[in-house]
Each structure stands twice: as C-alpha cells, then as structure tokens.
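Records of this kind hold a single protein each, on a pair of labelled lines. With that in mind, the following record should read easily:
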Amino acid sequence: MRMTLSALLDAVQAKIAEAIPEAEHYRGRLKEGFSRPAFLYTPIYQGEKKTNFVTSKRDIEVQIIYFGKMDRYGQKDMKDRLRVQDMLDGFLNQFYLEAGERRLHFTYEIKETDGKLTYYLTFTFYDESFDQRMLADEAREAAESVEVTTKVTGA
C-alpha cells in the first residue's frame, strides 16, 4: 500500500504528542490566538524517482516548528526549549517511524527559524509506483483472457 502524506504526518504528530502531551498541534498554519506550547507541521519537500514498473524511491521532508513558552520578559524560554529537545530525543534517535504497517527511516536536523526551535525530518523510502502503461496492459490482458460460453435453449 502506498504511503500517503497524511498518514506520515499523522504518525509524526502522534509520536510528538506522546512525548509532549500538553502541546497543541497544527498543520499548514497556526490559527489566530493559538496557545503555547504548540507544534506546526509543514511538508516542505516531496520528490520521487521511479526505480522500476512497480517501485519508486520517495523523499519527503517535514518541517516541525515548536512555539514554546515565553519567559517573563517575552523572550523564548530556554529552559522549556531544552526540556522539549530532551523529551523528543528518544523518538528522534530511533531514526525510524512506524506509520501504519510500515517502518520508515529518517534523518533529522535541529535548527532555529525566526527564533523558534525547528526540526527537519527527511524520510527516504521505497514505495509503490503506478505505471499507467503497465496497468493498461494488465487490463487488456485480463480482457483478452475472458471466455464467454453461451447456451441457446428452446426454439
């Protein structure tokens, strides 16, 4: 079964929610008036290279931005940031994610984006690939192999 982006994001979000249950989770954009702590998940790259008629190699990169607690001066709370990094360390250092019946391997980077703690997870895996020509050939071959037997009765 081909891996969907939605299933991949669901699995990533579930692992992060397991590690940091008090956080809110958003995809694509934050809603107005969101509360901290929060994670924003955005797929930023998808690439695919066909390897044969039924398989392709896929690359998917997901950006995860952590909107952490603020200190009493309205600045990022470094203590909170380090706590989050420690809590996600177990998941990230497994270097794989179970998504449905699949176990997808990934690499990661931790950076700072506009003053926010940001994770970049890059998944590289082989997946099903649909070759339209092959599917058409299979359909034609199936149609050619159909035998019809008729019986005429009565006169």
In short: The beta strands are 24-27, 38-50, 55-67, 96-99, 102-113, 116-128. The CA atoms of residues 98 and 104 lie 6 Å apart. Residues 5-19 form the longest helix (15 residues).
